[in-house]
Every structure is written in structure tokens, then in C-alpha cells.
């Protein structure tokens, strides 16, 4: 009996992973918990109050349960190529259904400028538009800030907020190594939440953007490599996993590996 914690990163295919967990919940008779914590203490006590087996799914940074006197859940997550992820977010916030949902939730919210809605990602990058200048050290951008995938693994500390920082990268790597049973990679499973309004972006423009995502890309590649080593270890028990994974997390990996 375990508690599964999926602190889902936005725009990495987490809808697919949520659907997988929903089906597993039916098959294995555990509850999917989707709660919005006000702060870390409330989050930990709220999640810990549920009787395992259960899962918690929410856009939230890594939270250290032991710091508040509770045992750690089984942490899992999904990562995506950082540049593909920001492109996905760029068009997601311009999709018609996004503003329909926003308008329903917030009737007084003004509609965006039509020229902003029509602006494509390539033009945004090549013109040096503020929205598409990914500057190292920045902590926030207008509509959300989905450039920082490491933030979801680094945690809630102030050192985790600057974009593309060395400290956020190293902390995120350490948390993944020590706390996460599995960090899946988007391209290893099918997507169910595609945006038909997202046009193709040239490789040349992607390369321009990648130059500013060096440490975010390093983290993504780190997670991919770790996953591949884990998959090889699952197929060959003689191999050693690259972390000091506990027996509890090994069981979780085997269960996920059979899916």
C-alpha cells in the first residue's frame, strides 16, 4: 500500500499520464486525489491524511514531506524537451478553447489583443519580442512562466526560481536522484491532448531558442539518461540502478515498467 505523488509539470503530456493513472485507479482500486494546497504544510498534511493506496496529481513544485514529519510518497513525473514545451505553451494560451475556459471562470477578464493572438512563434523570436526572449536569471514572465521545468523538481526555495540557473539545475538533479522513482519522458508514450492550432516551427528558430535553454536542456537530458538506465535495469536485474533507490521505489518502478 503506497501513496503516489505526481507533481505534474505543465505542457509535458501530463494529461496522458493522468489518464493512465485514472485507468490504473479503476484496475487497482486506488483513489486519484486532485487537490489544490494553499501552502506546503497544508499540502503535506492534506495528502498524508488519505489512506493508501492513493495518488495525488497537481501542478506543484517538489515538496519535502519529511521536513514536516511525514513519510515521503512515491514521486513520479514527466519531462519534455524544454524548447518544444515553451512552443506548446505559446500556442496553448492562444488557442480558442483556452480563452473560452478563462472567460467562463473569470467573466470580467478582458479579451486579448487580436494581433497578439495571431502572432506566430517564429515571428515572436526573430523580432526579439519580449515574450520570446528567454533571459537567464529571470524569475517571472507575463502569462505564467513555463520555461522553467527544473522548478518543479528543485522545489519551493527562492534559489529555484531564476531561469536557467546553475543552482536550480543542480538542486533539481539531486532531488530526482534521491526522491523520484520514475521521471518519464514525453516521447515514450502517446499523447491524447494535441493542439491542432499549433503550426510547425523551423529548426533554425528552435536552435536560436535552445541557446538560452542550456541548463534546462541539460536537466532534460539527465532525466532521459536516467530513465533509459532504469529501463535497462528492469530488463536485466544484474544491472545496478544509478541511485540508492529503496525497495519501495523499486517496486513502483517495476509496476510502471510493466505498463
UniProtKB/TrEMBL annotation:
Q: Which InterPro entries match?
A: Heparan_SO4_2-O-STrfase (IPR007734), P-loop_NTPase (IPR027417), Sulfotransferase (IPR005331)
What GO MF terms are annotated? Answer: sulfotransferase activity
What keywords does the record list, in alphabetical order? Glycoprotein, Golgi apparatus, Membrane, Signal-anchor, Transferase, Transmembrane, Transmembrane helix
Q: Which GO terms describe its cellular component?
A: Golgi membrane
What is the first-listed, main subcellular location in coarse terms?
A: Golgi
Is Electron transport one of the keywords? no
UniProt subcellular location: Golgi apparatus membrane
This protein's membrane topology, according to the annotation, is: Single-pass type II membrane protein
Give the family per the record: Belongs to the sulfotransferase 3 family.
Concerning PANTHER family, the annotation shows: HEPARAN SULFATE 2-O-SULFOTRANSFERASE, HEPARAN SULFATE 2-O-SULFOTRANSFERASE PIPE
The name under which this protein is listed is: Heparan sulfate 2-O-sulfotransferase pipe
Q: Which organism is it from?
A: Diatraea saccharalis (sugarcane borer)
Taxonomic lineage of this organism?
Eukaryota, Metazoa, Ecdysozoa, Arthropoda, Hexapoda
Amino acid at each position: 500500500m503506497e501513496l503516489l505523488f505526481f507533481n505534474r509539470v505543465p505542457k509535458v503530456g501530463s494529461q496522458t499520464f493522468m489518464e493512465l493513472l485514472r485507468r490504473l485507479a479503476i484496475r487497482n482500486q486506488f483513489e486519484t486525489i486532485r487537490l489544490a494546497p494553499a501552502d506546503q504544510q497544508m499540502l503535506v498534511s492534506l495528502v498524508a491524511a488519505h489512506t493508501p493506496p492513493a495518488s495525488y496529481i497537481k501542478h506543484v513544485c517538489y515538496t519535502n514531506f519529511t521536513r514536516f514529519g511525514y513519510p515521503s510518497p512515491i514521486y513520479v513525473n514527466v519531462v519534455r524537451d524544454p524548447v518544444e514545451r515553451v512552443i506548446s505553451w505559446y500556442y496553448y494560451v492562444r488557442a480558442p478553447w483556452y480563452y473560452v475556459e478563462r472567460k467562463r471562470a473569470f467573466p470580467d477578464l478582458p479579451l486579448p489583443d487580436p494581433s497578439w493572438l495571431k502572432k506566430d512563434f517564429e515571428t515572436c523570436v526573430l523580432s526579439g519580442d519580449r515574450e520570446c526572449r528567454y533571459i537567464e536569471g529571470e524569475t517571472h514572465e507575463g502569462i505564467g512562466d513555463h520555461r522553467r521545468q527544473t522548478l518543479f523538481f528543485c522545489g519551493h526555495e527562492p534559489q529555484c526560481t531564476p531561469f536557467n540557473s546553475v543552482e536550480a539545475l543542480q538542486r533539481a538533479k539531486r532531488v530526482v536522484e534521491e526522491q523520484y522513482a520514475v521521471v518519464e519522458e514525453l516521447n515514450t508514450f502517446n499523447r491524447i491532448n494535441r493542439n491542432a492550432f499549433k503550426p510547425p516551427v523551423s529548426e533554425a528558430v528552435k536552435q536560436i531558442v535552445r541557446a538560452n535553454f542550456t541548463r534546462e536542456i541539460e536537466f532534460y537530458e539527465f532525466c532521459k539518461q536516467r530513465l533509459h538506465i532504469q529501463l535497462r535495469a528492469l530488463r536485466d536485474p544484474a544491472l545496478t540502478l544509478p541511485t540508492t533507490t529503496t525497495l519501495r521505489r523499486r517496486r513502483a518502478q517495476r509496476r510502471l515498467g510493466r505498463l
